[in-house]
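ingest -> validate -> predict -> emit
validate: passed (alphabet ok, no gaps, 243 aa)
predict: started
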Amino acid sequence: MAYEVTKLVNGRPYRYRVRSERDPATGKTRNRWTYLGRGDAGRPPAAAKPRANAREALLDALERLLDQADPGDVTAAAVSIEAGLAHGTFYRYFRNRVDAIRALGDRLRSARAAELGLIDEHPTDARAARAALRAWTGVLLRARTEHPGLVRALYALAARDPEIRAAIVERRDGYARRLAAWLRELAERGIIALPASEAASAVLFAMLDGIGREAVTAGEPLDEAHVIAAIDLVERAVFGVVP
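emit:
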């Protein structure tokens, strides 16, 4: 039995004859392909279809699965299927599941970099400083509320992976140091009256980190009302009662 097919290669059609032959030794049927020539003689090549960003599709699929299942149950094969890609595509971008989870965390931090950098800017006055602190506090808490599966996975990995645990501690301490430097500048400019900015920063950040971690671990992310309450609490701790 023989038939003709046309295959697109880099946007150009090529014709082949396919003949089905049975191997007398094994009894299995194999296809023999014979090239017949171009299928569009004289025509310009068809425009190639744009390819989706496979890496981003895999990360999106990974996050959806982490929100639905235990991190240990999320496999490379499951991520590829969820993304609608071939299984091997996963390993073109990531060494393993842990590497992909790290990449997902890096993507989230990159997306929030500008907002998290609010406490690196020099405060102009009390009103601007209050707004910056509220926005920064909200970013920290909402990252856990909006991405609970990823945060839960990172904490689970940190419990048995010293490298990931060290990276989380380093980032946490880095945020606390940045907050302390910002509070110290506010105090030096007379915008706030807060002694021991390093200690205050450590306590405030530990409180925020604890609130977010407990909510995610319990599988009940904070609702917006609790996020606003925490933001108000931090603002009062730094600036006092809102006038």
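The chain has three domains: 2-38, 53-105, 112-239.
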